[in-house]
Each structure stands twice: as structure tokens, then as C-alpha cells.
């Protein structure tokens, strides 16, 4: 504690220390080394851990506001970053050594519980709430949010700062398209309520805003009646063109009779072809694997679901059969399972527990997520899936299309300039003792080559969960939205206090601490 306070004095000066020490919060500040260490790294594990000076465990929006007002009024404007559940890849929720991390997901006495309004079909949630807990609470009322991420142990504020996407996005839009109202603490320390009707600019700017304009302390999320069960189907394709044609057909369907979730993944790995009957594939579904053998080439798996109520269990088979008739997958490759809605939504957590038991969860994750315009997805397939990747992938590669008209152009999220675009998510894990193709440097180099290939082939991809090294790259990322983004920063966080880990704008106190030899000092 004494050491931490001394460091704080050196870093931000004695007057700032006195101010921080004097902040009266309902939650609490912690300087304990174990607490500082616990927020110093993230899921990506790509950077050396950097401990902040202090961590705030807030109980209310006012706690967050008091801290930010102190930072805003201090000589150095020390950085303040919200940390959701620390599932970023490149240190986006960190502040560096001289900042204060606000641990939003830490439960304190007084942190508001989700409040469901069944009549109005919405839930009010604390910004640090995990989606899994939002789901549990809303299910008590037979309701659920409409749009999801594949994994539920992410925070509401964290995913709304990006977009929040999964196989429902083609129909409901990303999670940021399903928010009715927010409470936000701006970089000036003001608590502002915003919505489509009130403080509209801030509302849209914060959604997908990478934490640049304020810390979300409350979100009002739109709900729908929760389905009870899910018919979950996977089918295979050997032709990329037929696979994408079917995916695009499925996301173009309107009306009641359609699938509720459309995703897919790429199988480039020989090992995966032989072992891909993972826990999903039940013994009730024997498959003649020889009939879908890839002969060393790439296979594509379409993943779809139909949600239903138990009272509809007599008709769901027929409905699924009719929908499937329009698709052109390999006929012998149909895998079906049926499970509770909550078990489907929470499916990735099961994989997490398995990986944790084998010590394979807390390893570096050089993930790369790209939005690829529909007009170039076939070139991407040839250059990346059938080219750069070779036949070893070190993790799942998701691919699924979305409709741009379900995204609000006024939000800060950036997508390609086409009506339909694909998410390609290369979700790889690096192993220090694995084969060469599983090593971190190998995977990072592959990512670099993929981005280089897109640039040379003029495939206008946009990074999702973006990570850029220079401001020039950020300006290119935002394109037409850059001027608006920059002017909102000037209005809502003029001293560049917030979410400095995104490395879009430079915080003055970080400049003080940057070694003069640092090659990145000129870049942001
Ligand atoms: P953090 O990583 O802690 O924070 C992310 C950024 O948001 C930081 O800049 C932080 O400062 C800022 N921030 C956090 N909280 C707030 C707040 N309350 N107000 C303002 N800014 C805030 N994403 C998808 O869209 N779809 C998926 O299917 C999906 N699956 C995933 C599966 C796994 C296993 C993992 C690890 C990640 C997945 N993600 C997915 C990515 C996820 O959306 C991002 O990691 C995101 O950052 C949310 O994580 P978090 O809540 O831990 O936020």
C-alpha cells in the first residue's frame, strides 16, 4: 500500500494523490498488489502486464463520476478506463502504469441488480453486468434479450462499446441496435442520460464508441418472449460458393418462417475433419464421414437454429424440414441436436470449462476479427482459407453474413460499405510448446499477412474489435465517420482521459511517461 501510494505520488503528483485519496465513494479504491495484478492483463495475453496505480470498485454511477471529475480537474489528467470482464485482446481496457481502472464487473454492495419491466419489455442493467446474469434475470419473467454474443461472460458495457454480434444479428442487428437508453459518465465527469430522444448524439456515439466518450453505467435493453428450446443444426459444404449462397439466402428471408440464428465455420484442418464430431455431434446422428471427406481441401459448416416453444414441438420438425429443403448442403452431412434455449446460448462456456481443465484457456489469443464485404468474400476465401492458412488453424474460424440495414449508421461502429458483409473471426490460441504453426509469432505473422493480402487485393475489410498502431490507421478505419468521432471526443472527453488502452487519442500524462526512444510515440 505504502509503495503504491509512493508510486502514485511520483506519477501524478502529490496534489492529485491527495485528491484521489479524498474521493468519497460508496464502493472502494484498492491498491492491493493482487487487485492491481488482476486487472493488468487481458484474455489476449499479448502484452506484458501493466499494473495501474489504483482500481476502483464502484457501487454507483456517482462513484465513477467522482473519480473522473478528479482526473479531469487534475494537472496531468490521469487516464481512467472501464474494465468489463477483461476479454479484450490488445490491452484495450488498460490504462498503463499511471491510471485508474474502474472494475465494472466487480460486484459491490449497492451495485444495482438487473431490473426487468415485463410490461414494457425491457431490462435496466448496470454497465458491468455480465450477459449471462442478464439472461438469468430476464428468464425469471419468461423474457430474454434479442441479440447475443456467442459467449455470455462478457460485460454489457464492454460489448456495447464494440457492437455485440452473433448469429441473431442478421435479423435483430447487433446488440447496439437493441438498446433503448443509456446512462453515461462522460470524460468531464457528468452523468448523462441519453436515448433516441435525449442527448441523441452521445447515445449513438457511445454505442460502438470503444469507450471513448463515456463509461456506460446503465443500459436499457429491449426484450422478447424467451423461446424454450432450440433445434440446432450443422450441415457441410465442399463448395464455398454454394455455402455462401445458402448463407445469404437465409439472411435475406423475412417473415415468421425462417431460422433464428445463422453462423458458420471453416474447416481447413485435416485434424478437424477427423475429429470434428465434437460434443455437439450426438451418437443419435451417425455420419458417414468418408462421404464428406475433404481430400485435403477446405470444408464449410453452416450452423443454424430454430427456436421454439414446447407447445410447438409437434410442428418444429416439419418447419425445419421445409426450410432445409431450400439449401444445397452435402446430403449425408446433417447433424441435429435439441436443447434448452439457455444451454444453447451458454454453449461456449462449456468449451471454456473443458479448455480450462486442460490449461488451454489462459494462453495467448492472437485473434483477428474482420468484416469482409460480400462482393469480395470469394477472393478472401481463395487468398486466406485456401491460401495463407495452410492446413493448420489453431482454433475456430467463424464466417457468417449480416445485413447492414440492421446497423444504425449513426452509431460509432464501423462496417464495410455494402448491404451485406461477413464476419470472419480467426479465433486462434497460441501454445509455447506446440508445433511451429501453433506458436504465437507464427500466428501473429499470419495475421499480418492476411491484412497485407487484403490491402494488396484491395479488399476493403474493417476490423471488428479493432486494433491499430497509428492514428493514420484509425483515421482510415473510421473513414467518413472520423470527423464526427474526433469532434465528439473534443466535446465529451476533451482531456483524453477515457479508454486510453484503445490507443486512438493520446492522454497527456501517458506522453509524460513514454520513453523518448519509443517507436510508437509519434503514432498516437
Ligand atoms: P473489456 O475487454 O473489459 O473492455 C472492452 C473495451 O470497452 C475497453 O476499451 C473498455 O475500456 C471499454 N469498456 C468496458 N466497459 C465499459 C463501460 N461500461 N462503458 C464504456 N466502456 C467500457 N464479441 C462479439 O461481438 N461476439 C461474440 O460472439 C464474442 N465472443 C467472444 C468470446 C470470447 C471467449 C471472448 C474472449 C470474447 C468474445 N467477444 C465477442 C469479444 C468481446 O465482445 C470483447 O472482448 C469485448 O471487449 C467485451 O469484453 P469485456 O466485457 O470483457 O470488455
From TrEMBL:
Keywords, sorted A to Z: FAD, Flavoprotein, Glycoprotein, Oxidoreductase, Signal
Cofactor names: FAD
Catalysed conversion reaction: N(6)-dimethylallyladenine + A + H2O = 3-methyl-2-butenal + adenine + AH2
Gene Ontology BP annotations: cytokinin metabolic process
Gene3D superfamilies, alphabetized: 3.30.465.10, FAD-linked oxidases, C-terminal domain (3.40.462.10), Uridine Diphospho-n-acetylenolpyruvylglucosamine Reductase, domain 2 (3.30.43.10)
Domain FAD-binding PCMH-type: from-to ranges: 48-226
Name assigned to this protein: cytokinin dehydrogenase
The organism's taxonomic lineage, starting at the top: Eukaryota, Viridiplantae, Streptophyta, Embryophyta, Tracheophyta
Amino acid at each position: 500500500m505504502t509503495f503504491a501510494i509512493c508510486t502514485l505520488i511520483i506519477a501524478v503528483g502529490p496534489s492529485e494523490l491527495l485528491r484521489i485519496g479524498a474521493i468519497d465513494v460508496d464502493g472502494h479504491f484498492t491498491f492491493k498488489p493482487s487487485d492491481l495484478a488482476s486487472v493488468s492483463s487481458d484474455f489476449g495475453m499479448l502484452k506484458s502486464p501493466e499494473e495501474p496505480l489504483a482500481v476502483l470498485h464502484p457501487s454507483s454511477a456517482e462513484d465513477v463520476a467522482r473519480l473522473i471529475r478528479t482526473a479531469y480537474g487534475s494537472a496531468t489528467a490521469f487516464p481512467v478506463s472501464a474494465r468489463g470482464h477483461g476479454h479484450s485482446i490488445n490491452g484495450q481496457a488498460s490504462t498503463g502504469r499511471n491510471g485508474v481502472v474502474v472494475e465494472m464487473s466487480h460486484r459491490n454492495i449497492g451495485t444495482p441488480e438487473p431490473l426487468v419491466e415485463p410490461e414494457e419489455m425491457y431490462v435496466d442493467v448496470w454497465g458491468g453486468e455480465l450477459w449471462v446474469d442478464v439472461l438469468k434475470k430476464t428468464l425469471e419473467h419468461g423474457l430474454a434479450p434479442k441479440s447475443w454474443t456467442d459467449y455470455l461472460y462478457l460485460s454489457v458495457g464492454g460489448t456495447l462499446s464494440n457492437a455485440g454480434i452473433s448469429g441473431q444479428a442478421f435479423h435483430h442487428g447487433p446488440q447496439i441496435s437493441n438498446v433503448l437508453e443509456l446512462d453515461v459518465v462522460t470524460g468531464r465527469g457528468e452523468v448523462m442520460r441519453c436515448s433516441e430522444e435525449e442527448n441523441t448524439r452521445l447515445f449513438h456515439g457511445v454505442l460502438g464508441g470503444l469507450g471513448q466518450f463515456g463509461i456506460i453505467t446503465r443500459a436499457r435493453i429491449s426484450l422478447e418472449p424467451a423461446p424454450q428450446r432450440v433445434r440446432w443444426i450443422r450441415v457441410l459444404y465442399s463448395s464455398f460458393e454454394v455455402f455462401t449462397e445458402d448463407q445469404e439466402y437465409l439472411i435475406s428471408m423475412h417473415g415468421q418462417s425462417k431460422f433464428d440464428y445463422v453462423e458458420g465455420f471453416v474447416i481447413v484442418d485435416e485434424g478437424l475433419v477427423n475429429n470434428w464430431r465434437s460434443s455437439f455431434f450426438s451418437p443419435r446422428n451417425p455420419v458417414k464421414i468418408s462421404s464428406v471427406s475433404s481430400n485435403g481441401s477446405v470444408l464449410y459448416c453452416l450452423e443454424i437454429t430454430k427456436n421454439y416453444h414446447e407447445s410447438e414441438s409437434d410442428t418444429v420438425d416439419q418447419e425445419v424440414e421445409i426450410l432445409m429443403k431450400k439449401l444445397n448442403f452435402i446430403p449425408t452431412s446433417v447433424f441435429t441436436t435439441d436443447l434448452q434455449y439457455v444451454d444453447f446460448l451458454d454453449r461456449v462456456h462449456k468449451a471454456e470449462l473443458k479448455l480450462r481443465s486442460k490449461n488451454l484457456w489462459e494462453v495467448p489469443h492472437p485473434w483477428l476479427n474482420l468484416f469482409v464485404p460480400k462482393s469480395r468474400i470469394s477472393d478472401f476465401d481463395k487468398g486466406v482459407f485456401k491460401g495463407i492458412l495452410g492446413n493448420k488453424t489453431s482454433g475456430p474460424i467463424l464466417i457468417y453474413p449480416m445485413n447492414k440495414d440492421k446497423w444504425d449508421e449513426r452509431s460509432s461502429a464501423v462496417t464495410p460499405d455494402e448491404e451485406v458483409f461477413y464476419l470472419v473471426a480467426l479465433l486462434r490460441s497460441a501454445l509455447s510448446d506446440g508445433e511451429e504453426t501453433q506458436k504465437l509469432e507464427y500466428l501473429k505473422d499470419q495475421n499480418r499477412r492476411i491484412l497485407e493480402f487484403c490491402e494488396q487485393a484491395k479488399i476493403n475489410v474493417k476490423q471488428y474489435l479493432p486494433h491499430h498502431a497509428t492514428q493514420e490507421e484509425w483515421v482510415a478505419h473510421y473513414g467518413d465517420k472520423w470527423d464526427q468521432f474526433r469532434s465528439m471526443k473534443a466535446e465529451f472527453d476533451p482531456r483524453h482521459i477515457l479508454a486510453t488502452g484503445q490507443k486512438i487519442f493520446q492522454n497527456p500524462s501517458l506522453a509524460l511517461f513514454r520513453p523518448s526512444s519509443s517507436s510508437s510515440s509519434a503514432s498516437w
